[in-house]
Amino acid sequence: MKLNIIKACALGVLAIGMYEGCKPEKFDGNGLTSTDLKASFTVTPVASKANYYVLNADTKGVLGVKWDLGDGAAIGKPTDTVFFPDAGKYTVTLTAIGKGGETKTASQDVNVATSDPSAGNLVLGSNMAASDDAFWNHITISNGVTFAIDNGKMVAKGGNYGHAGIWQAINVVAGRKYQIDMNVDGSGASDTWFEVYFGTKQPVNGSDYSDGGARLAINTWTGCGKTPFNGKLSAIQCAGSGNVVTAAATGKMYLLIKSGGNNLGLTGIEFTKVTLRGVQ
């Protein structure tokens, strides 16, 4: 009887030992992620260089950084110099990347007092807020397509081989180069064109426009715009002579954005942040 009790006790101790041995150990972190990662940065104006700012990220526990100036995050350097050509408030967001792909973010607002006189955007109403429509003149070349602002974007909609556009006058200086671009997106169109012109003739309602030739264009026959797209027009376009124009004379030139075709797509062709800047 006594021997049985001893055996039972021994088995009990062994079972407890095996249970304790199988219990997971406790760790403070698994060694694969950063325990000290944080997203923190400073913004400092560059002395004697208006509209330039130095972004300096805290690098403790940081393996990489992404900076977002409001137009999409991109890999950058922990210390970087950025340029804001236009007056306004910009939200700068830092994404700090640590071990194991762990990320943390932080944001700061940067208030730019004045536009750069050389590289500032010359387009009025470029962000397509509801009130920005007042800066644009609308033309209908043939019925079927309309242009209207919706939720921060100008939207070209319709089809049936209609044709319409918007334009505004821009003051230019002879011999100076100007670069045109915008953000554009669409769900995919068929038998459709979307074109940008910068000419010397003023557009007229009811008449097509071709002065200076198309500078940037989406054209489904040429090969772009058939499937969903989203990005800078300069990167998406597949037709046109180029988005840099040299002014032949001082005075007014006319920025025209027009679209037409059989079917501009379910969501139409949307665009915003239209820019026309002086370049070197």
TrEMBL record:
Pfam families: PKD_4. It comes from Mucilaginibacter ginsenosidivorax. It comes from the Bacteria. CDD domains: PKD. InterPro entries: Ig-like_fold, PKD_dom, PKD_dom_sf. Residues 66-112 form the PKD domain. This is PKD domain-containing protein.
